[in-house]
Amino acid sequence: MAHKMIFEFGHAVVTLTSGDLCHYDEESPTNGLHSHRAYELSLVVSGSGHFLHGGEDYPIKKNDLFLASPDVPHEIQVVPDGKSKNKSSLSFYYLSFDIAVPMGWRPDTFEEQILWKFLEAHTVVVGNQPHLIAYMKFLKKYRENAEEDSLGVRYSLLAFLLDSLSALSQFTHPQAVEGYYNHIVDDAINYIALHYTEKISMETLAETCSTSIRNLQYVFKKHMNCTVIDYINRVRMNQAGCYLRMNYKVSEAGAKAGIPDTSQFSRLFKKYYGVSPLKYQKDSLTLLSYTTELR
Q1: 250 and 278 in contact (C-beta within 8 Å)?
Q2: Can you tell me the distance from the alpha carbon of 107 to that of 173, in angstroms, rounded to the nearest whole number?
Q3: What distance in Å separates the CA atoms of residue 240 and residue 218, rounded to the nearest whole number?
Q4: Given 1.10.10.10, 3.30.70.940, 1.10.10.60, 3.30.460.80, which CATH number is that of 174-294?
Q5: Helix pair 228-245, 262-273: axis angle to 10 deg
Q6: What are the Cα distances from residue 161, in Å, to 43, 63, 84?
Q7: Are the CB atoms for 188 and 205 separated by under 8 Å?
Q8: How far apart are the C-alpha atoms of 53 and 60, rounded to whole Å?
Q9: Positive or negative CA dihedral for 292, 41, 74, 125?
Q10: What is the pLDDT confidence band of residue 290, given thresholds at 50, 70 and 90?
Q11: Predicted pLDDT of residue 178
């Protein structure tokens, strides 16, 4: 079952819809020429075939990543190989996504820079991305013991998407080019993603990242262009915004996002969104109702 997930990075909003594994062979060789209103991202997990996109024919094989752009006619095909005794087949994982940014938007955070680079220019197919298969293995194992829309699944799919967009746009973080990249940032971000609903102490976070509090703060600020506390609050406010759009009470949204004190939550929410939680919820639900009527 597909699940729609919304992630906010500054003023950029990414809407991701989880997909599934898909298989084609000589008996079912194609999905026919069609198009979507959103991007459709696919990763070949086994076999080989062809991806027709915008009039171009791209051969694809295991570990290749390919992308269908909005409203561009495309088709996936399996072509029989008369030379081989084995039947031709193609298996791939797919998901769809959309990126909404306001006029005049400029990237700030690491994630925003990835989105910016992708929207600026990207390829249709990028080959040999075996590291992305690791996400598929993790998701398969994780889903055996967790809900389909659990936190682990949500952030794994987001990480898979961002890694894929980086590959398609050949994005390289400036600090990485200069040789400054540090695993500390990744460790900190992963820990925050799993524990943002809890009280996170700098001591525990630094210990998890195998560094000192001072060095953690320095490295995080250098690579993410924000403090650790600011990043934690951004994650919490992003999730709180999702809960408010789902019509949770303000107190419930704050508690589920890791800030049980309603007054503190309201102050932080207004700081990051510019409006109170109640106004944000009212405006969001009004917009949703208006959009539904238009449909």
Answers
A1: yes
A2: 12
A3: 28
A4: 1.10.10.60
A5: 100
A6: 11, 15, 35
A7: yes
A8: 12
A9: positive
A10: very low
A11: 38
